[in-house]
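Reply to dn_fold:

You asked what the input looked like. This is it:
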Amino acid sequence: MRHIVKVLAPVCALVGVVALATPSEAAFSANETWTSNPYFGNYDTQFTDVTGDGLADAIAINDTGITVRRSTGSVFSGNEAWTTGPYYGSNSTQLADVTGDGRADAIAINDTGITVRRSTGTAFAANETWTANPYYGNYGTYFADVTGDGRADAIAVNTTGITIRRSTGSAFSGNETWTTGPYYGSQPPYEVFADVTGDDLADAVVVNSEGITVRRSNGSAFTANETWTSNPYGGERAPFGAFTDVTGDDLADAIVVNSEGITVRRSNGTAFTANETWTSDPYYGEHAPGGAFADVTGDGRADAIVVNNTGITVRRSA
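and this is what came back:
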């Protein structure tokens, strides 16, 4: 049985009006070199806003600690040590804004419970115990705001269903059952929690061989199944795919990564629309996790990031 722990990067609030590309104009633009040397963690490499400036930063999780390279909007800057020693979980280490201050915090998921180190904007602070007992899913553990209060909640996906522990800003509260039966995916990225409807509540999205199913969050449960694609839609190259807003309309879109390139299906709030080719050539990384989609430029649209042995390349969303 797979045991995967994932997190979604927070979607930054838009400032002003973003000009939206039409389907014929939409694409990921030309390669830009954002690091001039290798940069990745031996535990994980993630991209999310830990400083609170609206730009996703590059975070490397290593045996010795966590290093951050801030996004300037055009490159990732120099290494900054954000922990003074090792900080990682035996199950996984994740980044999400669990306190609601606009900065992603460092979360360690261990067999004994969940520990959080808050982001101060320049470092991760001291350990805080956020669960008094073990909390993780045998299919996956995720962090996303399913309640709409601006704080990422803890989500455990198990064989029997999905359980939520809300963030209070200083702890994860008691278990809540959000599905009355099993709900998980059979192909990568399996389950994702993202706001595909535009109501500021992260919905439960699963990817199966026959297509994509969504259960909307109503703030206290995930509602009935909705079919959002009428045919299969999945990726074959790591990171396989993602659900995040690449168009700037506050709806998370469906993105898949294949050998021939990247395809996007936009969310219209009730379904994912027709395929759009967003790269005309292969674009994926050679170093795990292969890549990511996050807003590194601060324009409200997630960009395509690949991690290679030689460095990090970005293609901006147009």
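Confidence is low (pLDDT under 50) at residues 1-21.
Hope that clears it up.
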